[in-house]
Design goal:
The protein has three domains: 107-270, 7 Propeller (Methylamine Dehydrogenase, Chain H); 325-413; 425-665, Alpha/Beta hydrolase fold, catalytic domain (Rossmann fold), CATH 3.40.50. 20% of the residues lie in helices and 33% in strands. The protein has an eight-stranded mixed β-sheet with strand order 30-31-33-32-34-35-36-37, with helices on both faces. A seven-stranded antiparallel β-sheet has the order 7-8-9-10-11-12-13, with no helix packed on it. The longest helix has 19 residues, at 669-687. It is globular, with a radius of gyration of 25 Å. 49% of the residues are buried.
Length: 694
């Protein structure tokens, strides 16, 4: 039996001229000219595009029909590792403690609170009830006022990341003030609980204005408007509740605006005006500001302090000096202590410092692990909370007494179907890149997995925006590892796994390092006996999907399968379209091909869609979401059509578009696992040559 025939995407060539350069796009028609409307209402999609995407989904389903039992098995395994009636460790705040819990079988959680130390539960919102009748439902931020009288939440009902904010009076259980539409998922109450600060998304889905309204409803007042399309906005409060903070920034430049909590209606004042290439964040620590910054050449960041009312750069003085290779990733302020998070050679640690400057380190001894600081609601406390995990060790939540240095284990992630860490081994390898850089690789495998190249390997990568791929625990990965696979993560440049300099060495002019690092990792695994050429499944999503497209073009012979989830593959066209939500904010990462000829040529040299050529491609599965504002649905659709047109091989190239979701895929905790099960079943099917015998 042969594979069914794929949909035929018609070519409708569009010639584009830019900076004296010409390119032809045969599949530009897949972009709906009314894409903004489609984000808000997927039913508005143009008929011919819908017909094509529906045909693609049917083709993928037909090709993978033989894996449906495997998909169901993988899904059941992953679901079996989830404690269905799970709950978070309660976070104390004054007279109450707040938590999120799931009921058995529920796709969405309940937000609740109870009196501190125990007592009758009060349900704040039940997401499953709110999600009834909706194909997609996701709550972004949710939070309460400091006096515990109001609770607000932001909900997205299309996957488009346009949120609606609602406020509930917790004494009556009734919503107050009316819904706030076209909002960003971020908001904050003023510390006195009188005002709600929220962010408006414009018609191009960009966060561009901060508004203030009475918390119980009333007129919206413009507080701040950002005129630069290249900036994102955020709102919050300082740890000591002394200020409302407006955060403005992109990948390389930030700026903070301050509003005193004593006068929430005051006009915001800038802390330090933005300077291109300078990032800073700050928090108020009772009587001083603490500033984390890369200013003055502090590539891996340093901490400064300022006692000034408005902490302009002239008032900063070094507090924790810059040390190359010690990347300060963040900090949390408490009344008596400051906790900073650091990463050295792709391993995390926490450092606790008292107000006099004395400090001690919180760290663990595994070869590869992840350590995350979880800040709570309280400032006047000696307790902080962190989460520890490793590829073999499920998540553990610890309360840590910063004064006594005592660790109290509050919760260990429960795996109902069972998990024995002793069955597995995690290893840290280092591949040598062409320029001599040592690229870390984290491996997870069964202890008895042979090191003779016979085991199939899934190699995961991302490598953009400074996001680190931390060696965390995953209930999903075990379904491959338990089948004898090796799960590998390539900590390539473009991430911050080895510091901010590691990120800078994989962006813009140096973007090619991300791709060649990933290839070097695959070749190192082959050289060390962990893998065999053609039996490696490459896996990445979003900007990691761009990585997948690039390595497919550069070394198609290495891969037995490529899984590209919501892949950013049409880089040149997207970075040349200023109407798209993320284009101006992304120019610091990739360059601006509209105004800069060098940027145009550089992006064109690796943009996966533009670099597709006549060669034999391995099996490819590309996925997307119809209402995705980050990587639009037409990127994977166009890429798949072009791959099929150019490949000289017989391997199937598949597209799966979720017609009811956005960038994150399905919103339910179990529905999402079905999408992962499809990815993994495809990897197994492709590596084992299922497509050759279909």
């Amino acid at each position: 039996m042969s594979l069914p025939k794929p949909p035929a995407a018609p070519k409708r060539p569009v010639t584009l001229e830019q900076l004296g350069r010409t390119r032809t796009d045969d599949y530009a028609w897949m972009k709906d000219e009314n894409w903004q409307q489609v984000l808000r209402d997927p039913a508005a999609l143009r008929a011919d595009i819908r017909e094509h995407l529906t045909a693609e989904n049917a083709y993928t389903k037909a090709v993978l029909a033989g894996t449906e039992a495997l998909q169901a098995m993988l899904f059941a395994e992953m679901k079996g590792r989830i404690k269905e009636d799970d709950s978070t460790v309660p976070a104390p705040d004054g007279a109450f403690e707040y938590y999120v819990r799931y009921e058995t079988g529920a796709e969405h959680p309940i937000h609740a609170r109870r009196p501190r130390g125990g007592g009758e539960e009060q349900v704040l919102i039940d997401e499953s009830e709110l999600a009834k009748g909706k194909a997609y439902f996701h709550v972004g931020h949710a939070g309460h006022t400091r006096d515990h009288g109001l609770f607000a939440w932001a909900a997205d009902e299309q996957g488009s990341e346009y949120y609606t904010i609602r406020v509930k009076d917790l004494s009556t259980g009734q919503e107050v003030g009316g819904a706030i539409e076209s909002a960003y998922g971020d908001f904050t109450f003023s510390p006195d609980g009188a005002w709600l600060f929220w962010i408006w998304r414009d018609e191009n889905a960009r966060p561009s204005k901060v508004f203030r309204r009475p918390a119980r409803g009333g007129e919206d007042v413009l507080v701040y408007e950002e005129m630069d399309d290249g900036m994102f906005l955020g709102v919050g409060t300082s740890a000591d509740d002394a200020f409302v903070l407006i955060h403005v920034g992109n990948q390389e430049t930030t700026e903070l605006w301050l509003i005193p909590a004593s006068d929430p209606t005051a006009a915001p004042v800038v802390a330090e005006p933005r300077r291109t290439g300078v990032k800073y964040e700050l928090d108020h620590w009772t009587d001083r500001w603490v500033i984390r910054t890369n200013d003055d050449g502090a590539v891996d960041f340093k901490l400064c302090v300022s006692e000034a009312a408005v902490p302009a750069k002239a008032t900063w003085r070094d507090f924790v000096a810059h040390e190359p290779g010690r990347y300060i990733t963040g900090f949390a302020a408490y009344a008596g202590r400051l906790v900073r998070a650091e990463r050295v050679n792709a391993l995390d640690r926490l450092v606790v410092m008292d107000r006099a400057g004395a400090e001690h380190v919180v760290a663990f001894d595994e070869e590869a692990y992840a350590l995350h600081l979880e800040t709570g609601f309280e400032y006047e406390t000696t307790l902080t909370r962190f989460v520890y995990q490793s590829p073999t060790t499920p998540r553990q939540w610890f309360d840590y007494d910063m004064a006594s240095r005592q660790r109290t284990l509050r919760k260990t992630q429960e795996i109902p179907s069972g998990h024995d860490p002793a069955r597995y081994v995690a290893r840290r390898l280092h591949a040598r890149a062409a320029d001599g850089a040592e690229v870390p690789i984290t491996l997870l495998m069964l202890k008895d997995t042979p090191r003779d190249g016979s085991a199939p390997v899934l190699l995961y990568g991302y490598g953009s925006y400074g996001h680190a791929m931390e060696p965390s625990f995953s209930i999903r990965n075990l379904s491959l590892v338990d089948r004898g696979w090796i799960w590998a993560v390539a900590h390539v440049r473009g991430g911050s796994d080895k510091g901010w300099g590691w990120f800078l060495d994989g962006r813009r002019e140096k973007k090619a390092n991300t791709f060649t690092d990933f290839i070097a990792c695959a070749e190192h695994l082959i050289a060390e006996g962990y893998a065999t050429k053609g039996r490696i499944a490459a896996y990445g999503g979003s900007a990691g999907g761009m990585l997948m497209g690039a390595v497919a073009n550069l070394r198609p012979d290495l891969w037995g399968a490529i899984i590209a989830a919501v892949p950013f593959v049409d880089v040149l066209n997207t970075m040349s379209d200023t109407s798209l939500p993320l284009t101006p904010p992304e120019w610091p990462e990739w360059g601006n091909p509209i105004e800069d000829a060098d940027a145009y040529d550089r992006i064109a040299s690796y943009s996966p869609y533009d670099q597709v050529k006549a060669q034999a491609y391995p099996p490819v599965l590309a996925t997307g979401g119809l209402s995705d504002p980050r990587v639009t649905y037409w990127e994977p659709a166009k890429w798949v059509a072009k791959l099929r047109d150019h490949t000289t091989g017989e391997a199937p190239i598949l597209l799966k578009i979720n017609m009811e979701a956005g960038h994150g895929g399905a919103s339910g905790r179990f529905d999402f696992l079905k999408e992962i099960a499809l990815d993994y079943a495809f990897a197994i099917w492709a590596i084992e040559g299922g497509w050759k015998t279909a």
